[in-house]
């Protein structure tokens, strides 16, 4: 999916009607002020002011409301695109930097896109059109000399504003980058606070994030200084055309006071949008940064997904690894994992045990070779179907904020309370359930903070086992358990009617593997 096609399908089509709406609002609003001026000069009837005013209010309300709805739909479309892309992005892409970018996109940039139809288009379509229409009206209502002078001074004002915006945009360029770096540093601090404190003490633990925040503060100070200058230039730009036109009337000895009132009314309305554009560069920088971030996510390395469901025979979940190469870890590696067997994967640290598991579940593709379920390549099996084949417990158990039941039901949303409690007790969580009258409905704290390391591992095991998948993959899934608890759980796992793949640094004898894959 190209970036242009995404924008065309999900942005342009939604924004064009709203853009035309703001054009209509600009025309009606300009005509309203022109009608007031003509009524002062007794050229148009006063009733026309009321009619145009009502039409302007109604149209502005309708377009603004449509802009908010369109912005919400636009953000929803982009969220859907991002979620689709995320389901296909290779796991190796999720570095801390990229996660920071993704966090900023989802929490700031995409919500910022919602303001485009209702506010940004108003600034960049409605705001320029009103001065153009009113300037043309001055040629007709007053005379061509006033109109020409006002147009010249308005162009000069816009040029001053343009240069101020250039300086503001240039100064502000660093702000978005420092915000990403600050988010990155804050993520590191939150995720690794214990390590940072133990390594450098409480004060040194925050050194990295303080440096990032300091750089962000400097960037913000420079931006604010440039913004103050842009605001001052905006004030000059707003008043200059009006004063120039009034001074011209005075110097040319125009006696009719009505002309002074008309020129002031139209001139101030024509220059008012210039003030609205005073900090436009900040908004443009934010939107451009959001666009770049969105483009980077859209162009992240993804796994191609087939469109059609493949027939994988339920009686044949044998896994075949055929001559895979994944530099620098694997080179022409092959093995067969028969259905229903207990397989132990061992090897020294860094030899690719976790990488092999990821390739088996197609979190990434090998550079060469293939991985098959039965006789079907994983590359030809769509993600929803492929996901149903595997239950996975990673080295670091993933626990979500919520209850014991909500965590276990992640793998089987329709599981009954009885089923959830049964699997929880089978994974030796009985003491945890009996700790509170809420049982499976007791909260686990933020990301499992209320649980011990062993309890988190057992909860992760329960989450995987309740899925009843034909292939269960455990990556150091019992490393935090005491020997007695580990032995009890392994006994439960050995009774499962599935293919069981285990990575462990503990004694392999307790697993009683039928096949061992050694990674030298």
UniProtKB/TrEMBL annotation:
Membrane topology: Multi-pass membrane protein
GO MF: ATP binding
Top-rank taxon: Bacteria
Keyword Repressor listed: no
PROSITE patterns per the UniProt record, alphabetical: ABC_TM1F, ABC_TRANSPORTER_1, ABC_TRANSPORTER_2
Transmembrane segment boundaries: 20-42, 48-68, 148-164, 226-247, 259-282
InterPro entries: AAA+_ATPase, ABC1_TM_dom, ABC1_TM_sf, ABC_transporter-like_ATP-bd, ABC_transporter-like_CS, P-loop_NTPase, Type_1_exporter
Pfam families: ABC_tran
Compartment(s) where it occurs, according to its Swiss-Prot or TrEMBL record: Cell membrane
Species per Swiss-Prot/TrEMBL record: Pseudoalteromonas rhizosphaerae
CDD domains according to UniProt: ABCC_MRP_Like (cd03228)
Residue span, ABC transporter domain: 312-520
Keyword check for RNA-binding: no
Keywords noted in UniProt: ATP-binding, Membrane, Nucleotide-binding, Transmembrane, Transmembrane helix
Domain ABC transmembrane type-1: 48-286
Name assigned to this protein: ATP-binding cassette domain-containing protein
């Amino acid at each position: 999916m190209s970036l242009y096609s995404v924008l065309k399908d999900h942005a342009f089509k939604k924004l064009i009607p709203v853009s035309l709406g703001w054009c209509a609002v600009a025309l009606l609003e300009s005509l309203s002020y022109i009608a007031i001026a003509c009524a002062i000069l007794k050229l148009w009837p006063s009733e026309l002011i009321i009619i145009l005013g009502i039409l302007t209010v109604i149209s502005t309300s309708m377009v603004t409301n449509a802009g908010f709805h369109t912005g919400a739909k636009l953000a929803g479309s982009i969220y859907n695109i991002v979620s689709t892309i995320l389901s296909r992005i290779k796991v190796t892409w999720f570095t801390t930097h990229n996660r920071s970018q993704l966090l900023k996109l989802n929490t700031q940039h995409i919500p910022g896109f919602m303001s485009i139809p209702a506010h940004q288009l108003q600034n960049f379509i409605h705001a320029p059109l009103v001065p153009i229409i009113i300037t043309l009206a001055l040629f007709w209502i007053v005379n061509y000399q006033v109109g020409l002078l006002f147009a010249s001074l308005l162009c000069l004002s816009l040029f001053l504003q343009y240069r101020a915006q250039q300086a503001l945009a240039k100064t502000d360029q660093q702000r978005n980058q420092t915000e990403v770096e600050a988010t990155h540093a804050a993520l590191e601090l939150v995720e690794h606070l214990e390590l940072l404190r133990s390594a450098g003490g409480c004060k040194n633990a925050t050194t990295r994030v303080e440096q990032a925040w300091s750089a962000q503060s400097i960037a913000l100070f420079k931006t604010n200084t440039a913004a103050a200058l842009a605001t001052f230039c905006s004030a000059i730009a707003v008043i200059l055309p009006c004063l120039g036109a009034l001074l011209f009337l005075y110097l040319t000895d125009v006696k009719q006071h009505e002309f002074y009132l008309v020129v002031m009314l139209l001139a101030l309305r024509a220059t008012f949008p210039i003030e609205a554009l005073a900090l436009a560069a900040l908004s443009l920088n934010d939107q451009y940064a959001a666009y770049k971030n969105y483009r980077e996510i859209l162009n992240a390395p993804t796994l191609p997904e087939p469109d059609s469901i493949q027939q994988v025979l339920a009686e044949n979940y044998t896994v075949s690894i055929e001559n895979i190469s994944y530099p620098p870890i694997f080179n022409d590696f092959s093995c067969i994992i028969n259905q229903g067997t207990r397989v132990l994967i061992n090897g020294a640290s860094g030899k690719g045990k976790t990488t092999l598991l990821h390739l088996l579940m197609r979190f990434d593709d090998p550079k060469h070779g293939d991985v098959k379920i039965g006789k079907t390549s994983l590359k030809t099996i769509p993600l929803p179907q492929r996901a149903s084949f595997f239950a996975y417990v990673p080295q670091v158990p993933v626990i979500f904020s919520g209850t014991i039941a909500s965590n276990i039901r992640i793998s089987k949303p329709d599981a009954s309370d009885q089923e959830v409690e049964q699997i929880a007790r089978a994974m030796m969580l009985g003491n945890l359930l009996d700790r509170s009258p809420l049982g499976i409905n007791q909260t686990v704290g933020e990301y499992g903070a209320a649980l011990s390391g062993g309890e988190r591992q057992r909860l992760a095991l329960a989450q995987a086992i309740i899925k009843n998948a034909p292939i269960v993959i455990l990556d150091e899934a019992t490393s935090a358990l005491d020997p007695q608890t580990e032995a009890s759980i392994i006994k439960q796992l050995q009774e499962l009617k599935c293919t069981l793949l285990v990575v462990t640094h503990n004694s392999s004898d307790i697993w009683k593997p039928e096949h061992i894959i050694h990674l030298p």
